[in-house]
Amino acid sequence: MRRTSAVAVATIAATALTLTACGRGGSGSTASETGKNVGSGKATGTITVWAMGAEGDKLPTLAKEFEAANPGAKVNVTAIPWDAAYQKFTTAITAGTTPDAAMVGTTWMGEFAGNDALDPTPPSIDKSAFYDGAQKSTEVKGTSFGVPWYVETRLVYYRKDLAAKAGITTPPTDWAGLKAMAKAMQTKAGAKWGMGFQAGGQGSWQSIMPFAWSNGADLTKNGGKGYNFDSPQVLDAVKYYQSYFTDGISNKAAPATPTTEPDFVSGKVPMFISGPWEMSAVEKVGGAGFKDKYDVMQVPAKVKSSSFVGGSDLVVFKKSKQRDTAWKFIQWLSDPKTQVKWYQSSTDLPAVKSAWQDPAISADTKLATFGKQLETAQAPPSFPSWEQVIASFDTEMEKVTKQGADPAAALKTVQQQADSIGTGQ
Q1: Which runs of consecutive H residues, i.e. helices, occur in 115-204?
Q2: Do you know which SUPFAM superfamilies this protein is assigned to (predicted)?
Q3: For residue 128, what are the β-bridge partners?
């Protein structure tokens, strides 16, 4: 999920226990399903599509092109604020009043599919066209319930000019090199803090897990049937992350409201991890010429570079009475040419790999680095209880970063809570 969904996560965490008590996933599928084919010919009829945030505001314009190509079809887009979306979806699923199709956050897929609300992806959709990590975000118990619409992953942003002042002209590729670079930013380039890591708390898992995945971690065990937070690979990653705070490279008292852009532009915090939206954000604050002062690099590896893959998926609900038209609209949105048009309108990065070959995207070297990271980026497990379980992880990580709590003990607590909560399947 994208940064714009941060507020929604609070709603998820607050309601997750209630949903579990209501038997979430009890009526859901327990085995792999095969989607039905979509009929041939042009789309007809009227469909309702829900979309959140800026995507909900911009999609109607693009939908008009679909309508022009399918004169018998009408697409009604309902724009929903992110902070109201999760509750609106769960209420609609319970009441049987879901839209025909919708944009759905990647970490919601397990729960919605577990409630038997989503229609399996038709076999006519080529799953190999999408980035593997993004495609996996649509899969629950071996069944794909939608397609990735747009993607995002996290990279290390760094001030190229200050790195040169610190004597570093080549981006590091391993953990030790990254930490040495962050320290040099302080000792040689005058930075207050070498790395702007989040000091635990809500959403901090998205900064920590890239290091776990880059250490070969698997967040599931028992054949994908259980959580696996207390593995040696995750422990190493948490210890590494904690060391930035204990060594004074990252600020354990960082404000709850991020000051990322001004701190990056001033050089106070010349490195941080974030998604592609920060490019326009830092360039706006930095002004003319600032885009030449910074660059992005892949997450340094201990085993193989990896990162978090988020974004949003497109789904069709089982209650839809216009299934064929809903899927035809989604297929149209997944066409490489449409993906490029969508990027130019929204700056959402294409989930379809071939769309990245278009000059509108390939000419940007920073975007190319995001594309390279997407080749190995990973999605979290599609367990219905993920949001509830990861909230406990964020809580424990705040103790690790701010209070110096033992990482092994913290992960043991997280694992115990995860085992108690269960996967929700």
Answers
A1: 132-136, 160-165, 175-187
A2: Periplasmic binding protein-like II (SSF53850)
A3: none
